[in-house]
Structure formats: structure tokens, C-alpha cells
Amino acid sequence: MLRFIVRRLIQVVPTLLLLSVLLFAWLRSLPGGPAAALLGDKATPEKIAELNTVLGLDQPIPVQYVKFLGRAITGDFGNSLITGEPVTTEIARALPATIELSVAALLIAVVLGIPLGYLAARYRGRPLDTTTIIGTLVGVAVPVFFLGYLLKQWFAVDLGWFPPSGRQAVDIEATHVTGFAVLDGLLTREFDASWDALTHLVLPAIALATIPLAVIVRITRASVLDVMGSDFVRTANSKGLAPGTVRQRHVLRNALLPVSTTIGLQTGLLLAGAVLTEKVFVWGGLGTLLAQAIERRDYPRLQAVVLLGALVYVLVNLLVDLSYAIIDPRVRVR
Amino acid sequence: MSALLEVEDLKVAFTRRGEPDSVAVDGVSFDVQPGEIVGLVGESGCGKSVTSLAIMRLLPERGNRVTGSIRMDGDELTALSDGQLRERRGRDLSMIFQDPLSSLNPVITVGLQITEVLTRHRGMDKKAARAEAVELLDRVGIPDPRRRLDAYPHQLSGGMRQRALIAIALACSPRLLIADEPTTALDVTIQAQILDLLKQLVAETGTALVMITHDLGVVAGLCDRVNVLYGGRIVERAERHELFRAPRHPYTHGLLGSIPRLDGPPGEDLAAIKGSVNDNLPWTSACAFAPRCPNALEVCTSVTPAPVEDGRFLRCHNPVGAS
Ligand SMILES: Nc1ncnc2c1ncn2[C@@H]1O[C@H](COP(=O)(O)OP(=O)(O)OP(=O)(O)O)[C@@H](O)[C@H]1O
Ligand SMILES: [Mg+2]
Q1: Which listed ligand is nearest to B214 at the C-alpha?
Q2: What Pfam families is this protein classified in (chain A) (predicted)?
Q3: Interface check B108 vs A, CB under 8 A
Q4: Cβ(B10) – ligand 1 distance below 6 Å
């Protein structure tokens, strides 16, 4: 098992390298560079050229890349062109917000999705199933930001049940320990701060969870139906096992294999969705950093954020493969 | 002696919305005495598996209609509640399936797949069940049984998997075992071993066996009585020696003719039954086998042959040797 993990971790390196090359080349092929964006109205060709020299952007792209790589290996991804701060500092500050949002969304999607998908399969063709299928169709079809605005309008603005934006009310005294607002409140026993953060989290987490939830429901349902028709479930029934045993030991364990793959793939989409959700709810996480960086062509920040996203994606999928190895004995030998 | 299993006028129709029902089993009746080995023989698609699944009540929940009576020890299985049936499955009657690989759960150990029956029906605790499972694996001829308990199905050979399935089916010493082509997925040499094992085990335990096969050769060494199934109906039933000595139904005759005989002249052509099940006529107004039958008369395509029971059961207008 350990060898499997190490081997997979080593595979991460070339993946990230390749991605960084592509990213580097792609960014620099975009029209308009950071200099033009920074200078705004005052941009003249001379001033742009001057600034490019300062930023080192006048050098050939391969040279720039090698320099970037040399520094990146030491953990230095440069300073943001917008704020002048090291991008790693910026990211460290914004990361907890995004993780909190994504984890909450993923939790909702998994905790609701698997049972719902299972129930839909079990009561196939009944109203519960039909309703669920229609719900998931709507769920995947509605754009995240549109759903975000709807939720915000109804439950925050019209009904006033939840705060419309931000991570915490401004008048709340909160001590920061980990940067995860809900968790910090629990750790420092500032439960009102925790509660406040939680109410802020609800709407954006639901908006972000919708698509992965719908996908997980559908995959679970299909997978459970597939397994219920399999020969070994028939064998289990032929042994006269209690229905609960058949369900848990024989149906669910097998049915969860494709679901775990789906969860891994969904984290990629989740990161993309987080950018949109953060914008709607003024969340101030990585998504906000990224959106700004794209607008202003902040190369250092863009590079760092995208590579981080890729790293997370790869690691989550490694986790998925590990979960596979735990559930499915056939994987271990390979 | 009263019968252990009595199947009476069993009909299974598969229903699809917007399509006429397709009748897979069309009024099958047979019985099994305690400890007896009964064969159910016929070519692919004649309804052997559907019959056995109907007896076990393991057909899909939807999309089919089962009528008729299935009694075990006089109890009507079709009338039992789901819970009552689960009490008896695995304990009083159990089943072995055709494909040992797909019939075992790939993600749990062979040991657990055996012990779960023991804990369920014999009230054993985990430890006792494990000890008993070792015993069972040993009895079905799996070497090094203690180690095999922790193996997963994919780590066993095909023959060993089928042995494990037999161990599961016999774990609670059921009085009836249904084996649905238990050897077709195996190599020829392994087939013979598994058949020998089954024969020996049912003899030891007094379990009655319903042996389902398309291969009369399998029946020859094993069964006391044989039911020949064609197009969802039993066309002939006789005691084994009777059947092999003098097959009366042209279909049985054809099946026998397609077995190579060691005592036949070398180079002799095997007589195959011409045509395929697709040529069947509806039983409602003809003999289903008529289009493929060498003995067919005009009446065969227009009148359903009535079942005749004298010494053996036969459903034929013009049996072999009637002249
Ligand atoms: N679930 C099902 N839905 C519809 N038709 C079915 C279903 N299962 C079986 N049948 C049909 O019932 C008929 C009998 O099938 P069955 O599986 O009993 O054949 P068999 O005698 O066991 O053949 P084989 O030797 O190939 O296993 C076939 O025509 C088959 O197409
Ligand atoms: Mg079959």
C-alpha cells in the first residue's frame, strides 16, 4: 500500500510540470499583458516596454519559465502584481475560506447524494424515484451563479433567513486560529462566532453542492441498480440473508466503487464552481483571488493558484484510488 | 413416502409493457423425493434456469408472472411471506449457479461469504462459524482451507470457486439443492471432479438434488430420474436407465444421439437435432418440437399432444418405437 502511494505521489511531479509549461505558454499567449492591465489608461508602448523589463517579461518565454521553475522549487512563486505581496501569503490567507466552502459543499453532496441515489434505486419507478430523477436533471442544468443569485435573493434578501454575503458578520468578535471560521469558533469556544459563520456558509455551500449532488445521486442510483441485478446479489438472496445484510454487505459496498470515482472527478468541477459561487456571495477565497488575477493578468498569482488547484485535484484522485484499494481487493494486487 | 418438492403446473411469463407476454415456462410439473437426484435437461432457452429461479423465488421482482404451485414438505412456497422464505432459503433449500466467478461477491472474503450463512441460519458466533467454514472448505476438497478463508474470489481458480459455492449451499445441510448447470463454466477435467464431489456430498448428507443441465452425459452418471424439457414444457420423464435404454420422445432420442458413444463404431456421425429453438410452434395448438421432429405427422402441427403417464411421462403424438 505504501509503495502504491509513493509511486502515485512521484507521478504527480511530471503531471504538474507539464501543466505548468502549458499554463505558462497559454498565459503569455493571451492578448494584453500585465503591464497594459496595470497601467490602464496611461499605457503607452514605451511605458509598457519599460514595465515589462522591470517585470522580466521582455525575456524569451523559455528563459522566464526556467527562472520561474527555479524559484518555484524553493516555494517562491513571486509577488502578486496587484498587491505586491508574495502570492503564497495571499493564497495562505484565502485558502481556508475556499476549503471551508468546498468541503461543506462536498459533504452536502455526498451525505445527501448517496442515500438519495440508493433510495431512488430501491424504490425504482415509484414517485420518490421519479421526483429524484427530475430533481437531478434540473440540478445539473441550472448554472451555479444563477442558482447562487436565486438562493441569495429568496433566502437572504426576501426572507432574511440567511446573511446574503461574506463569511462572518463584521460585528462579530472572532479569534483566528486555523482560518476556518466555523472550526475556529468551536476551538475557541466562541460558539456565536461559529454559528454566525455557519449561517453564512449555508447558501453558498448549497449553491456549490447542487451539481455534484445531482451527479452523485444519478451515479449512485445507476450503480445500485446495476449491482442489485448482479449474480452475487442473487446468490446472497439464495442464502436467505436478511435484507439489511444483502443491502449493506453485498449491494452498497460494490455500488460505491463507481461513486467514489465520481466524487474524485467532481472535485475538479467543484473548484471551478467555487470561483463563481465566491463571486456571488463575496466569499473572499481563492476564487476571488483567481478572478481578479485573470482580469488583471497577474501572472504570478494565476500560475500559483491554478497549479495549486491542479495539485489538489491530483491528490483528491489519489485518495479516491486509495479508497478503491480499500473497498476492492482486486485493485490491491495490481 | 411423500414428496420433498412438488412443482405443479408452474407457469412463468415475462411481461413487457406494449408487448405480448413471453411464456418461458409453460405448465411444468414434477416432484422430487427426499434424497433423490432428479435431472432437468434441455437445450439452451428451454426454461431450465427460469424454472429453478421460480422455485427459489429469485426471479426479478418485476416484469414476470408466476403461477402454479410449488410445495416443499407440503408448504406452499409461493404463499410464504418474504421473511418466511428467507428463513428457508439457504437452510432448507439452496442453489448453486452456473458462473462461479460472478456468483461470488468480489469485494468480501470467501470466508465471510460462508460464515454469513452459518451465523444467519445456525445461530453460530463468529468463531464457531469460522471453524465450521474451515471444515466445509475441507469437505469440498479445497486444500489449505484455513488460509482460503481470507482469500477473495479472484484469488481462487474456477474450480475452487465452484467448490466454495457448493460449500456455501451445503453449509446448513439443506434437504434440497438445486444446481443450475454448475459445471458449464469449467474445464472438462474440473467438470468431472465437481460432479463427483456433488454426487458424493448429496449421498453423504441425504440432500435431494435437482440437477439442471443441457448435457445428457451429466445426467447419465448422476440422476435417478430425468425430466426432459422442451420449449417450457416437460416432454418426457423417466427413470434414468429406462430413458437411456429406450427414449420415447423424438427430442430425447435426438439428444441421446448427439452424445458421442465410446462403444459406437469409430467415425460414426453424431446425429444432431436439426433446426433451432427459434423454429418452435406454439404449444397451444401444436407440438412445439414438430418443425424439427423427424417423426412429425400432420397432427403434430395442429393438435397439442396430450400428456400420457404410463410408467413414464410422455407428451408426443408419434413416439419413437411406436411404429
Ligand atoms: N429476465 C427475463 N426477461 C425476459 N425473458 C427472460 C428472462 N429470463 C429468461 N427469459 C427467457 O426465458 C426463456 C428461458 O430462459 P432460461 O434462462 O430458463 O433458459 P435455460 O434453459 O436456462 O437456457 P441456458 O441453457 O442457456 O441457461 C428464454 O427464452 C429467455 O429468453
Ligand atoms: Mg440457464
Answers
A1: 1
A2: BPD_transp_1, BPD_transp_1_N
A3: yes
A4: no
Say if B113 falls within a structural domain: yes
Q: Which residues of B fall within a CB distance of 8 Å from A245?
A: 116, 120
Relative orientation angle of helices B158-170 and B126-139, to the nearest 10 degrees: 120
Domain that holds residue B139: 93-173
Closest residue in chain B to residue A331, using alpha carbons only: B107
How many domains does chain B fold into? Answer: 1
Alpha carbons A314 and A304: distance in angstroms, whole number: 15
CA distance B239 to B313: 10
Q: Can you tell me the mean pLDDT for A220-242?
A: 94
ipTM of model = 0.89
State if residue B49 touches ligand 1 by the CB under 6 angstroms criterion. yes
Tell me whether residue A81 is exposed, middle or buried, using C-beta atoms within 10 angstroms of its C-beta: 0 to 12, 13 to 18, 19 or more: buried
Q: What is the pTM of this model?
A: 0.83
Q: What proportions of chain B, in percent to the nearest 5, are helix, strand and coil? A: 35, 25, 40
Do the domain assignments include residue B83? no
Please tell me if residue A241 touches chain B, with a CB cutoff of 8 Å: yes
Angle in degrees, 0-180, between the axes of helices B158-170 and B188-205, rounded to the nearest 10:
10
The protein residue with its alpha carbon nearest to ligand 1, atom 30, reads: B45
Say how many Å lie between the CA of residue B44 and the centre of ligand 2.
7
Q: How far apart are CA B47 and CA B30, in angstroms?
A: 14
In a domain, B128, yes or no: yes
Domains and CATH numbers, chain A: 94-296 (1.10.3720.10)
In a domain, B280, yes or no: no
The residue to which cell 435431494 is assigned: B208
B186 Cβ below 6 A of ligand 1: no
Q: How confident is the model at residue A309 (pLDDT cuts 50, 70, 90)?
A: confident
For residue B170 and ligand 1, the question of a CB distance below 6 A is answered with: no
- Which of B80, B91, B103 should be substituted to probe chain A, the one whose Cβ sees the most A Cβ atoms within 10 Å? B103
- Placement of cell 456468483 in the chain: B103
Chunked into runs of 10 residues, chain B (323 residues) has average pLDDT values of 88 88 90 93 91 94 90 90 92 92 93 94 91 91 90 90 92 92 84 88 90 88 91 92 89 79 56 71 86 86 86 87 67
Cell of A29: 499567449
CB contact under 8 A, B104 and A232: yes
CB atoms within 10 A of CB A83: 14
State the alpha helices, DSSP H only, in A56-190.
Answer: 61-73, 87-122, 127-141, 144-151, 181-187
